[in-house]
Structure prediction request, 274 residues.
Amino acid sequence: MYHHKDRAPDRRRTPATAAVGRRAQGDNNEEYGMTADADQGPGLAMPGKTSGGHGGTALTEGAASYDAWYDSPRGRWIGTTEFELLAVALGAREGETLLDVGCGSGWFTRRFARRGLAVTGLDVRGDWLSFARAQPGPAGQWVAGDARALPFADEGFDHVVSIAALCFISDERRAVAEIVRVTRRRFAIGWLNRTSLLYRAKGREGGQGAYRGARWHDAGEVKALFSGMAVREVSIRSAVFLPSAGPVARLTERMLPQALPLGALIVACGEKRR
Prediction:
């Protein structure tokens, strides 16, 4: 989520990326260790990619670096922890359809596909989608588009997820409304959590490094984004309580309930009301 070893500029703060945003991506493998170096902030972009969005090869290499981070012990644990939170929240069945809004390199999208779901990944960056499309594994659909104007029919997907992408776009509520519109059954949307240890280390005073400019929310603010929408039983869950991802963090993750809204990733999940 908000990690990787090498520092890189924020891919979401350019005009080309403002439409969708993406979860905090790659820049410091110590990010979850909450280092104090503001120049090595949480990664929203990847090594080899420029903030201006020039150079398709470099951008695709950025997607590869982001994706490869999940092969590290820390990345594997964090990614799996977040994925399992989402999977449990959705309760999706094999053969159902799923849309991942702000899919980036498709790491999470592909894992849903391996669970037997028919997946579609949407992102604003065509080069990252090209990387996702080239990866081995179950086939998926990869679509370029704007989270605030999803190019899909009403109730076009059984399930919709978005993982720390909406924090970096304007008009989050409009994007939430679009996610609700295209959902047939359940949704799970993740945000950066203002009541987490990660926020205390990286989010205060406008944010450090690539978190600069991100919107952090508490549980009440997240639920308020759904006010007046056709949803029911919206609940809050969270994951990654201790950003270090070490042995104590892993033990803490097993001991604390997901309903405790103190993890770095806070997720609102619920059902479409008909």
